[in-house]
Amino acid sequence: MVSAWENLVREAMAALAGIAEFEVEAAPGLQGEIGDMEITHPQRLLKSSAIPGRRMRVWFYFPRTVHTLDGEGIVIDIDGPFVPQRKGKPWTYGSLLDTVSIPGEARDYLSAIPLRVSGLTPAQVFSVADLERQKAIDPKAMNPNLHPALQDLGWLLAYELTQACHAFDNPDLHYPGVETEEPVTDEHVQLVIMATQRELDRELRYGRGAHTDTRRPAAPLDKLPWRIQRAFVERRRYLYSLYGIGQEEWQRGTWSLWKVREDPDWLPPWIAA
């Protein structure tokens, strides 16, 4: 059964793309030809909706067809390397991925992609004390925005938070964490919960019904049972690891397409449901 949250995701993507319903059949797949530069990010998300594979879904964001004085070709990301078009056999997402996997400029570019596109740097917020200090200086400060190619990761984090918040209605909710060799510290749990709370407070929802200036209060995450808070943070760290992002990548500020787990048959829960 598709949850209400999953329906909201579908409706939002449909609205962004200016269509009446969620067209999962629009996915081009590995053999699809690469779209033009002017295709918007929401349209890219729509077209990638039913593409299986964790790494492939991330890869879909990067290549786009451009027309230059030197001829037609593919640019990797908006300002990344240029790959000339092949004569008589246009690039597909699959064939180009095979090509850029070979050592060279494109592979190097995709090995050190900026992790954040705006917001605070890890040096500014590295502990609970840092976050409290930042809030005092700038109450409207926002968390860093992830690179747009990591949209699935962003939605997975929101999905996990939605599941965790069911504990407000059911304190006995079965919501286990993820055990790792390096346990999550209590301070890190507090830091993640505080940072997540800041984003919820910044993006308050309007009340149901007609347009109104009244916004609904954010869920008080620090009121969740401690085991739920810890489980959410553990799941969050695990999700980042699936995209090849750990403490080193977070502090360095870059990530690599080649470290994203392939998972060739994977689809996110709002598509697989």
Topology, element by element:
Elements (H helix, E strand, L loop, with lengths): L3 H14 L23 H7 L6 H6 L3 E6 L2 E6 L5 E3 L8 H8 L4 H5 L3 E2 L1 E3 L9 H10 L7 E2 L4 H15 L20 H17 L23 H17 L4 H6 L1 E2 L13 H4 L1
Short structural description:
The protein is mainly alpha-helical and 273 residues long. The protein folds into 2 domains: 4-112, no CATH class; 116-255, no CATH class.
Helix percent reads: 25-40%
- The parts where pLDDT drops under 50 for at least 5 residues are 1-27
Strand order of the largest sheet: 1-2-3
The portion of residues forming beta strands comes to 5-15%
Q: Taking Cα atoms only, what radius of gyration do you get, to the nearest Å?
A: 20 Å
- Average pLDDT score: 76
Following the backbone from N to C, one meets helices and strands in this order, namely HHHEEEHHEEHEHHHHEH
What count of structural domains?
Answer: 2
> Structural class of the secondary elements?
mainly alpha
Compute the separation of the termini in Å: 7 Å
The description of the largest β-sheet is: 3 strands, antiparallel
Describe the global form. Answer: elongated
Q: Please tally the helical runs, counting DSSP H or I stretches of 4 or more residues.
A: 11
Number of strand segments: 7
Key terms for this structure?
mainly alpha, 11 helices, 273 residues, two-stranded antiparallel sheet, three-stranded antiparallel β-sheet
